[in-house]
Amino acid sequence: QLHLVESGGGSVQPGGSLRLSCTASGFTLAHYAIGWFRQAPGREREGVSCISRTDGTTYYAHSVKGRFTISRDNATNTVVLQMNSLKPEDTAVYYCAAEAVTTVQTMCEWPDPKFQYWGQGTRVTVSS
Description:
- The protein has one helix spanning 104-109, and strands spanning 3-7, 10-12, 18-25, 33-39, 46-51, 58-60, 68-73, 78-83, 92-99, 117-118, 122-126.
- It has 128 residues and is mostly beta strands.
- Strands 2, 4, 5, 6, 9, 10 and 11 form a 7-stranded mixed beta sheet that branches. A 4-stranded antiparallel beta sheet has the order 1-3-8-7, with no helix packed on it.
- Strand 7 and strand 8 (78-83) form a beta hairpin.
- The longest helix is centred in the C-terminal third of the chain and has 6 residues, at 104-109.
């Protein structure tokens, strides 16, 4: 069965850190561009960070630039989103998606329910 699974969400105080993982089952993540997206209550899903399939090009939303880092671990078939200096406005359900044919900017700026794979999401809560 082919699917993505997110993990690593939880509750943290402002200024804290979390490390989200996106792991694939049944297919190889290195063959896909991977994106992290988030959706807060009452808001549309937005792109957070994406990494290309080919040369490692990355894209970050302006709101997370300098605080979040996306990276691949091909040995474990995982893409990691390291989130530092978390803010209450980072509170959301975070999803990862995989798409073979796209650019990182297109993927992140235009989240598409038709991306080839989506995970079920992991909740992040930033609160004091």
